[in-house]
Amino acid sequence: MIKAVMVINTQGKPRLAKFFEYLPLEKQQELIRNVFGVLCSRPENVSNFVDAESIFGPDSRIVYKHLATLYFIFVFDSSENELAMLDLIQVLVETLDRCFKNVCELDIVFNYSKIHTILDDIICGGQVLETRSTEILRAVEEISKLEAAPNAITLIPKSASGWLSR
Amino acid sequence: MSGPSLMDSLFQRSLEDIIKGLRQQLIGEQAFISKALEEIRKEIKSTDLSTKSTALLKLSYLSNLHFHDLSFAAFHALEVLSSPRFSHKKIAYHAISLSFHDSTPVLLLITNHLRKDLNSTNEFEVSLSLQCLSRIANVDLARDLTPEVFALLSSNKLYLRKRAVAVVLRVFEKYPDSVRVCFKRLVENLENSDPQILSAVVGVFSELACKDPRSYLPLAPEFYKILVDSKNNWISIKVLKIFSKLAPLEPRLAKRVVEPICDLLRNTGAKSLLFECIRTVVTSLSEYESAVRLAVGKVREFLVDEDPNLKYLGLQALRIVAEKHLWAVSENKEVVIKSLSDGDPNIKIESLRLVMAMVSEHNVSEISRVLVNYALKSDPVFCNEILGSILSTCSRNLYEIIVDFDWYVSLLGEMSRIPHCQTGEEIENQLIDIGLRVKDVRPELVRVARDLLIDPALLGNSFLHSVLSAAAWASGEYVEFSRNPLELMEALLQPRTSLLPSSIRTVYIQSAFKVLVFCLHTCFVRGGSIVASASLNNLPAGVSASVSYESFDEFSVENGADASVVHGQTCASAPITKESIVNLLNLVELALGPLLGSHDVEVQERARNLLGFIDLTKPEVLNSAVQEKDDSEGKGVETSKIIKLMHDAFSKELGPVSLSAQGKVSLPDGLKLKENLGDLEMICGDLEPPSSNAFSFGSSYEQKDGLSFSNLQIKEDSEQTNESTSLLAEHRKRHGLYYLPSGKSELVSNDYPPANDPILQGDIDDNADNLVKLTAESLVPKRKSNHGKPRPVVVKLDEVDEKHVAMKKPESRDDSLSGAVRDVLFGCEDVPPTLSQSNLSNKLSSKRKGKEKQHTDPHAESKENVIDDGNSSLRRKDRSHGKERRHRSPRKKNAEERKETNQKEKEKSRRHHGRHKSRQRAEEPLKVSAQTPVIPDFLL
User: Fold this and answer.
1) Is A47 in Cβ contact with B346 (below 8 Å)?
2) Which of B80, B652, B752, B812 has an alpha carbon 20 to 30 Å from B23's alpha carbon atom?
C-alpha cells in the first residue's frame, strides 16, 4: 500500500502531506525533514527512487519527481510497483495541471482543500482507486458544486438540526 | 466561555487570508501563526457552523503543513460533522482524518455520524465517510460499521463500490471477524468486469496475500483467470504480486502460471508491467530456467537503457537473480562494473552489491584490489560503503573465501589507511579475530601492525584508533614474530600516543609490557645461554618453563620455513644487546613515568605494573650489562627467573572461546551444584591436577619470590589461559567433528597443526590430546589443493550451534485475520497446521493437498462453514461434504489435470469422508453446543 504522499518545495517547505496511517505530528515533521534532506542532496538526472528504509522503516520505498520548484513524493511498500508509482505521480501532476491550467507552486499553496480532494479521489486507504484524470476531475467538479450549494444535500433549513431530520 | 461576537464571524479570516498572511510574513511566521491560532480557538467555539467550520479548516491547514496540534478541536470537529451542509462535513472529515487515532477520546462518538453518512443517498457523502473510515477505523468502528461496508461492497455505484473495497482492508485488519461477513462479496467482486473495481479488489487481495499467502491459495483459479484475461496494467501488476506470493507455496500453481507470465514478459510494452513480470520470475519462479533466461534478457535491456530508473531497477532485479543464478550477473559483468562509476548513488550502491555477489575465492583479491582503488577516488559515503561491503563479504562464514590470509591482513592494513575510512571498528575486530583463528598469518599480522603503529600521522585520526588498538594488541601478543621488537617498543611509546583515548592507551601499555618481557627474555634467557642453563638448573619448577620454552622452539620448527625464516631474521636484523635493553628500560621509564599520575585508573594501573616490573629487573640488568657473562651467579638468576616467568605467562596463546563453551564443559565428578558452597574448596582441589603440565609451574615457586604484583599477574594469566585451554580441549574432544569442516576448508593440509591448540604442542603422552589429534587428522579431508598455497587452518567454534540458531525460524503464526480467512475459504476442509511445513519430499501428501486446494470451492464452502468458530472445527454438513466436493470439481478450470487425477480424487474424497466421520463420532458430545453460533443472514 501507499504509506504517504508529500509535496515539498525546493526550500523544504511542505506543500502537501498525507499519511495513510496515523503518525504524531512531530514524527510527520521529522519524516518530511528527513525526506527532504535526502532529496535535496541528489543531483539532477538520476533515478527517481530512493531507499527509504532508514527513514520509514523496513519495507518502504520512495519514488519522487522533481518538477519546477516542487518535489512530488510517494512512499510505499513492496506491494506496489515502483514504475507504476512513478506513473501515478504523473497522473497526479497531470490532473493538477488540467485542474489549474499550468499548475505551479502557488496553485498548490492556495488550493489546500482542492488538492486534498483530488488526492482522496486517487487514493483511498493507501490503495490506488482511480488513475484516469478525466474521471478524477469530474468527481472533483461535482464535489465543488456540492460544496458551493447551500444545503444541496438535505434541503433542510439551516436552523433544523441534522439529528432531527433523520 | 465568551462566545465570539457577530463581528468576529463577520470579519472572520478565511483560509486564504491565513495563507496570504503567512506568505507576506509581516510579523514573522511564528508570531503570525500563534495569532491565527488564538483567533481559531475563539472562532471554533462559535455556535455558527460556518464560522466553526472555517476555523476548523484553518486549523487543519496549520496542523497539516505547520504541525500545530489539532487534537483540542476533536469535539468541535464532531460538531461540524453533524452539519447538514456538505462543505461542513467535508471540512470535518478532513480534520478528523488528520487528527483522530485509536486513543482519541471522542472516537466512539463518531460511529453514528459515519453510519448515517454511509447510508446517505449522496455518493460523495458516502465516499467522505468511507475515506475517513479507511483512516481511523479501530476495532469498535470496524465491528459496528461492518454491515454498512458489507452493503456498499455490492453498491451499484462503482464509485462507492471500489472505495468500499479499499476500506475492507482496514476493516479486516482491525476486526477479523468481519471476514466471515464480507469475504464472500469481496471474492464476488473478483469477477466484476469493471477494471476499476477489479483493480481495487486485486489490490486488496495482494495486500492480504502479502501477510498470509497460504490462506488465499484456494482463490488461485480466479486470480489465474484475471492474469490471463486482464488488459489493464495496474491489475496485471497486482495479480503478479499475488502470484509471486502464491507460487512458491504450490509447485503446481507455479507450473501453471509460468507460461502466461512469460507471454506477458514477451509482449507487454509497459515497463512497469515488464518489471513486475521480471521480479515475479526471478523471485518466485527461479526454478524455471527458460523463464529466468527470458527475464534476464529483459533485465539486460533495462541495464543498457538510458533511463537511470530502469537501470536501477535492472540492477535490483539482477541482485535477486544472483542469489540462485550467479551466471546472470557474470553475463552482465561489464555493465555492472561500469555502473560503479555512475553519477547516481543508488545505482552505484546496487552495482557494488552485485560486484560483491560475484566474489569467490578465486577472484576475491582482484576484485578487492579494484574496489579499494576505487574507494580511494570516491566520495566518503560511497568509499565507506565499499569498505564495509568488502569487510562483510570477506569475513562471511569465517573468512571462507579467503585463501591467502597474508594478503587479506595487508589489505586490512591498507584499507585502514584510506583517508575516508570510518570502518575502523570492523577492521579492528577482524584483525584480532584473524590473529586468534589463523596461526599462519601472525608474522604478516605483526608486520602490518608494525607499519600501522609506527606511523605517527595515523594517531591523529580518531576513526583509526580502534584499528591501532588491534595493531597494538597483535604486536604485543605475537611479538615473537617481530623483526625488530625495539622498534615496536618505540612505536608503542611514541609521544603522540597521548592522542589516544585511555581505553586504547591501556592496550598500548600492556603490549609494551609484553614486548619488553620478550626482549628481556631473548636477551637474558635465550640469548645468554649460560644464564639460561644456570637458571634452568636452579629452578625447582623449571621443568614446566623449559617445556613451554621447548614447545615454542618445536613450534617454530614445525611451522616450517616461514616461521623459522622470520625467527632467523629477528636475530639477524635486530640483535638485542644488553645496551639496547638498558636503553629500552630507560625509554619505558621515561615514557610511562608521567602516566603514573594519569586520571584514568586503567592507564595508571598498567603503567604502574610495567614500571614495577622494571624496578625489579633493572638493577640486575644494569649489573649484568657491566659485568661479564660468566658472572651470572647470585642475583642474576633471580632476575632471569622473573623474566622467564613473565615470558611464560605471556607466551601462552589466547584462543577464541566460543560463546557457549561454558555450557559444553561436562559437569566434573563431585561437583554438586545444588549443594552448599562449603564444598567449593574440595572441588577446586579436584580441578587442579588435570590441568596440563605446561601450567604446572605454580604457587609453591611463586610464593617464594614474594613478588606480589607479578605474582598476581601470573596467577591471573595462567588461570585464564588454563581455563580457556581446558575448555577448548574439552570442546575439541567432544566436537572434534566440527573443528575442521570438510566443506569449507577443503584446502586444509595436514602439515599444519590446528591453530590455537596448545595441547598439540605440549605433552603428547596425554591420552586426550592424542584423541584430539587423531580425530582432527582423520577428519581432515585430503583433497588436492588447486592453489599454489594451501589455505591455512581457520579455527572455528560452535558450528553446530550457529546452524541450529540459524535454522530456528520463527514459526509462522496464524493471526486471527488469516485464521478467519481460512475458515471462510477452506471451509469444512480440515486445514492441517502442518500444511505450511510440508515440502516436496513428501510427495504423496503434497499431491493430495494440491488437489484439495484445487477442488475447494470457496463459494460453496464458505456457506457451509460460517458456523466454524475456528477452534473446535465442528461441522454442520459433514455428511454431504465428500459428495458435494465431487459435484463441484467439474467447475474447475483444469480439465486435463482432472482427467489424470480423477481416480485419485475419488479415493481421496472417500478417505476424507471417512476421516470426517470418525472425527464426528469423536466430537459427538460437543456437538450440542456447536449449534448455537448465529449465522449472519446475508450469507445464507
Assistant:
1) yes
2) B80
Element (H, E) at B227: helix B220-229
Instruction: Answer positive or negative: Cα dihedral of B426, B431, B434, B436.
Output: negative
Looking at residue B923, its amino acid is: E
Q: What is the ipTM of this complex?
A: 0.91
**In the predicted model, is pLDDT for residue B687 greater than 60?**
no
Q: Which of A46, A51, A130 lies nearest to residue B308, judging by beta carbons?
A: A46
| 82-111 in chain A: CB under 8 A from chain B | 82-84, 86-87, 109-110
Interface test with B, best of A47, A78, A135, A163 (most B CBs within 10 A): A47
Averaged pLDDT, B362-369: 85
pTM over 0.80: no
Within 13 Å and on the Cβ side, how many CA atoms surround B225?
11
Best residue of A129, A137, A158 to probe chain B, by most B CBs closer than 10 Å: A129
Distance between CA atoms of B60 and B90, rounded to whole angstroms? Answer: 12
Q: How many CA atoms lie within 13 A of B150 on its CB side?
A: 19
Residue B786 CA to chain centroid, in angstroms? 34
d(CA B741, CA B779): 8
Contact A125 B15 (CB under 8 A): no
Q: How far apart are CA B56 and CA B77, in angstroms?
A: 7
Average pLDDT over chain B, rounded to whole?
A: 72
Which chain B residues have a beta carbon less than 8 Å from that of A124?
A: 130-131, 134, 163, 166-167
User: Is residue B158 within 8 Å of B194, Cβ to Cβ?
Assistant: yes
Chain A hits for B163, CB-CB cut-off 8 Å, are 124, 129
How far is the alpha carbon of B53 from chain A, nearest alpha carbon, in Å? 12
CA distance, residue A154 to nearest chain B CA (Å): 7
Between strands A70-76 and A14-19, the pairing is: unpaired
Identity at B206, one-letter amino acid code: S
pLDDT for B776 beyond 60: no
Q: Could B68 and A51 be called an inter-chain contact, meaning their C-beta atoms sit closer than 8 Å?
A: no
Candidates A64, A83, B320; CA nearest to B299 is B320
- Order of strands, sheet of A49-51, starting from the edge strand that comes earlier in the sequence: A14-19, A2-9, A70-76, A61-67, A49-51
Q: From CA B200, how far away is CA B234, in angstroms rounded?
A: 10
